[in-house]
Amino acid sequence: MMQVKRYTAPSYAEALIRAKNELGTNAIIVENKKVRVGGIFGLFGRTVTELTVAVDQPQPAAANRAPAAPPVAPAQPVAPAQPAPDAGLDHIEREMAALRAAVVRLANRDAGAAGSMQLRGYARRVYEELLARGVEEEIALEISQQISSDEAEGRAQIREELARRLQSAPSAPIYRGKQLVVALVGPTGVGKTTTIAKLAAHYSMDRRLSVGLITSDTFRIAAIEQLRTYAEIMSQPLIAVDTPQDVARALRELNRCDLILVDTGGRNHRDTARMQELRETLAVLRPDETHLVYSLTANPRDAYEALEHYLPMGVNRLSFTKLDEATAPGLILNMRKRCDQPLGYICHGQGVPDDILPAERTDLTKILIGA
Ligand SMILES: Nc1nc2c(ncn2[C@@H]2O[C@H](COP(=O)(O)OP(=O)(O)OP(=O)(O)O)[C@@H](O)[C@H]2O)c(=O)[nH]1
Ligand SMILES: [Mg+2]
User: Which ligand is nearest to the CA of 345?
Assistant: First the structure.
């Protein structure tokens, strides 16, 4: 834990010696200033040096030595020991905490800035492009440090580095007689139902496979109607399920389908009762793929929180929507950093069925560094 202390002495040298004596040689100087003590309104006082010093693990330099002799002349008249009032202590503690936070902030900023200062040429451009697209500074730095300053070399490297970080997992090949169950989960309004419609259209019309639909979003009538409209256009069976028993029955009814797509109602992940329902539905469904669908226009903080709630439910793909509207698609990299699951689909518009691609066929390098 970082410790921050202040030392006052008539000269800089004396203050420093006292600090290093107490905190060890690892101590770093945070601030060095002259202050006036005594006198009225700062007049007629004398000037002393005030050093603010921080150390991570105090290792008293004097620990192994004989106790230091008391200073011949104390630099400051020592106030008689008396219990300090609580308010005073509180104040000091608060001040220490603020100082400690300031030092940590400074140290971090310096590390980041120092790292990015080393970047030259193409590597520096990559760093700036990543930052501009919402990639977190630490991740942008990690990536750019792998990249050559030479453009030709760097271009090949960045493709490789992003491919490594953004592994995607294409759906298992679907063929007649081997059924695949794919469920989409995620917060409200991210585009789950639209994505289900896109997938349903692609697999039934382009691939000529038989597709069945299940929706557990029975909370809102409009939600069922939305999916029913698509199901009717594509002549696909749609079953709405309320309970885990319904889920088991629906699976039996659709057992001849090559692909079963499961739509779920958007959940506020802080609503524990509805999250529990979803957990139970998934436990019976046992999907081959469970995609957490997230919108690239969403607030990153919410996204990270959602991730924590949905991952334990067996999410094994990350799919993203609204790439067409996103100003910070770097969320893809930030989310992947927090979760080992591979990418599934990337959706880039409202259009059903065209605006969707498997992640491995999406040009993520273009999306993340613009070239
Ligand atoms: N721009 C854009 N809009 C999209 C995309 N995908 C879905 N949308 C739109 O997002 C809105 C919500 O889509 P839905 O599919 O209803 O979202 P949902 O996740 O099913 O919502 P809930 O069922 O309420 O949780 C609709 O207006 C969609 O047209 C996309 O890739 N880009
Ligand atoms: Mg929906």
Answer: 1
Cα-based distances in Å from 222 to 169, 217, 219, 225, 338: 32, 10, 9, 5, 34
pLDDT at residue 148, as a whole number: 95
Give ligand 1 pocket residues (Cβ under 6 A). Answer: 188-194, 217, 223, 265-266, 321-322, 324-325, 347-350, 355
Closest ligand 1 atom number to CA of residue 189: 21
> Is a pLDDT exceeding 60 seen at residue 365?
yes
Class of domain 180-369: alpha beta
Look at the pTM and tell me if it is higher than 0.85.
Answer: no
Start-end ranges of CATH 3.30.1660 in the chain? Answer: 1-58
Q: Looking at ligand 1, which residue's alpha carbon is closest to its atom 17?
A: 191
Q: Topology of 1-58 in CATH? A: Dodecin subunit-like (3.30.1660)
Helix or strand or coil: residue 303?
Answer: helix
Distance 134 CA to ligand 2 centre (A): 27
> CB under 8 Å to 78, separation ≥6 — which residues?
none
Give the residue, out of 193, 194, 227, 323, with the most ligand 1 atoms within 8 A of its beta carbon, to mutate for a pocket test: 194
Q: Is the pLDDT of residue 136 over 50?
A: yes
